[in-house]
Amino acid sequence: MEHNWFFPPHDGIRLGDLAVALGAELADAAHADRIVRSVSPVNRAKEGDLCYILSRKMRAELDTSAATAILCDPSLASLVPAHISVLLSKRPHTAFAQAGALLHSSAMSPDVMTSTSAIAPGAYVDPEARLEPGVTVEPMAVIGKGAEIGEGSHIGPGAVIGADVRIGRDCTISAGATVQYALIGNNVIIHPGARIGQDGFGYAPGPKPGMIKIVQIGRVIIQDHVEIGANTTIDRGTMDDTVIGEGTKIDNQVQVGHNVRIGRHCGIVSGVGIAGSTRIGDGVMIGGASGINGHITIGDGVQIAAMSGVVSDIPAGEKYGGIPARPMRDFLRDMAEIVMRSGTRTQKKGGNDE
After folding, report:
1. How far is residue 171's CA from residue 179's CA, in Å, rounded to a whole number?
2. SS3 letters for 212-277?
3. Chain centroid, CA 159 distance in Å
4. Tens digits of per-residue pLDDT, 51-84?
């Protein structure tokens, strides 16, 4: 893939300066003045590109790579051809992410779609809303009565910010997103089409047949440095708050039910559904398309495999998988047994045919 106008290459960063910025070590100090301008996978890298490797499986691609520099663990440095500079890091994946942010800063959050630098014609900002200096509001966005938005924040085209919502500084609320009944911290990114603060799913039995809606009067609280993916929905609380902890990253098309409390620095992948009143600790990782039952507690540091069904509490630090989710060692043993039995049945069937 050639560079395109959406994410053009950087003007250039010296490898010596990049090493300092990443806390990495340049294997050959004589290469300090070499320049990198972009990131690339190893197999199609060219001059000016920075790549990274995590294992010896990349050896064949390295032999034909034209990259300017490779980030890697010191144990892999001997794999890199002599014409490619080496940046040594004990955490090359993390260092590469940091390098990408330096080389392509505009890709770190949704960009402004129009040339406006303030409140665009066609946007509606209620006279009783309060916007600090440096807020950008794009066309067709609506800012409700009493809403407050902090300095440096960007409200994308067609976004709706409800009455009395509070949004901190340097936030991005992308095109078509809606935020209501919510308090948003600083440096929060909400991607296109996300829905924050609508009422949760709550009903009581009514006259047969029928159900009676339960009032939802809580809020959504999103702490600093959270990222919410496209078309994700986060319901407000019933009588308590729905809370997303600092630094948590939520992928696209995730459903977070009312009263859910998610801890700090969690990672929740696409398609996850979290039912109401669940408590999730700090540093929890939940694989894609998993379903989390309501009114349960998931401890700090838990890892849940993709496509799992969690129906009960999980102690801190555990790794779970499967439907119903169970300790990973049990899940893997069960899967191995199923495969073995399936193979035995196939062999018996083949013998009968003969």
Report:
1. 12
2. EECCCCCCEEECCCCEECCCCEECCCCCCCEEECCCCEECCCCEECCCCEECCCCEECCCCEECCC
3. 20
4. 999 999 989 999 899 999 999 999 999 999 999 9
CATH of the domain at 74: 3.40.1390.10
Q: Is residue 309 part of a domain?
A: no
Asked if residue 152 is part of any domain, the answer here is no
- Residue 354 pLDDT more than 60? no
**pLDDT (0 to 100) of residue 335:** 87
Domain that holds residue 34: 13-107
The catalytically annotated residue of 31, 191, 225, 258 is 258
Task: Tell me if 68 is assigned to some domain.
Answer: yes
Dist. CA 25–CA 197, nearest whole Å: 46
Evaluate whether 44 touches 1 at the Cβ level (below 8 Å): yes
> Does the annotation count 104 as an active-site position?
no
Whether the CB-CB separation of 276 and 290 falls below 8 Å is answered with no
Give dist(CA 148, CA 225) in Å, integer: 18
Residue 337 lies in a domain: no
Please tell me the total count of domains within the chain. Answer: 1
Query: 10 Å Cβ neighbour count for 99?
Result: 27
